[in-house]
């Protein structure tokens, strides 16, 4: 294997017209950093026609006309900054008297950063790393990388001719510029693919968005999983006439636990003697009663004698009949949800519960209002679990970046990391030649003295 082939393989250069000499690698001081510089020559065959006037090259109407040096930024080699000092062949057209230089698919038109660096930066952007760390790793400015990510928005296009049969709707905390700092996200509930991210979650905006899909497409949607946000219910009734509304099971249990927790805090404030115990054992109160330990005695802070977990709960429930009634109702509701017992759940929601706390009565009132949707949650296997996981990923992205200002950059980064962004294709140049005066500007090199 020749040295040119070896270096092209090392630097991942596909252009066979780039050749290297024997002593082509040097250590040079560039902007105060010792870097690797590869010297190469780009000399493709003489073109068949002038790219400016289109005259066919006959009788040597296009001749060689000197050369031009261009410096291309390459991906790091052995964790050292790497540049390619490229000597481009120039040509002169005798017919139109215009000169032009050879072009290589190594870089984009009028760019001095290689496509390999571009793709490596975007691949790193798919990981949970800050933009500044990625730009520092690839020796580019964070503004350039943000511009590349911003351009990815045009690559992501929503197909308005199809929709999955099962959808999941939710919102997440977005940038300050959007309405109430909340944005809308929806995905395919079957496989967890994010379908799109919208900057506004208001009902009017969402209706105008989904009405872009034809009616026959929207009629094919069978289920939509949501939390208990009322505008989403109105949206589904308007846009998806055949869809069953499913309330996410996580949010059902969350409402139950919050009601029980509010009751505990109320009892805690009215029983100073048990204040510390109720505050310390809040997790034990929210724990599933069937999972409590009934046999192993151990020391609990606030109690003089060895006790089991179930004995601690029994002692705390004696403080208030309202607290005890609310506790056991919450336990029965969670057991019905866990075992998907729709009959028991419906009976618990509709039976008179005069002794439970006011917070629990409010939850039951909400449950009765959305009873059909809650029953669907126990009937269908779909939930917002994958969507909540994506929302957690969004929080990580936002925290690593110390916040975002531009929604479109934020959206592109989310779609990149969630593997929703479509495959990026880099267009190959139509010819190997630029017009005169359009070569990319090169970075100046200074030899180390």
Description:
The chain has helices at residues 3-11, 115-125, 131-137, 142-151, 203-210, 215-218, 230-239, 249-269, 275-280, 282-286, 309-317, 321-338, 342-350, 358-369, 371-379, 385-400, 407-417, and strands at 18-30, 33-42, 62-77, 80-93, 99-102, 166-173, 182-188, 194-198, 223-226, 244-247, 433-435. Strands 1, 2, 3, 4, 5 and 11 form a 6-stranded mixed beta sheet that branches. A 5-stranded mixed beta sheet has the order 8-7-6-9-10, sandwiched between helices. A hairpin with a 5-residue loop joins strand 4 and strand 5. The chain has 4 domains: 3-117, no CATH class; 124-154, no CATH class; 158-248 and 383-417, Nucleotidyltransferase, domain 5; 249-379. It has 17 helices and 11 strands. Mean pLDDT is 89; it is low at 422-449. The longest helix is centred in the middle third of the chain and has 21 residues, at 249-269. The chain has 449 residues and is an alpha/beta fold. Helix 3 (131-137) crosses helix 4 (142-151) and helix 8 runs antiparallel to helix 12 (321-338). The two termini are 34 Å apart. It is elongated and about 105 Å long.
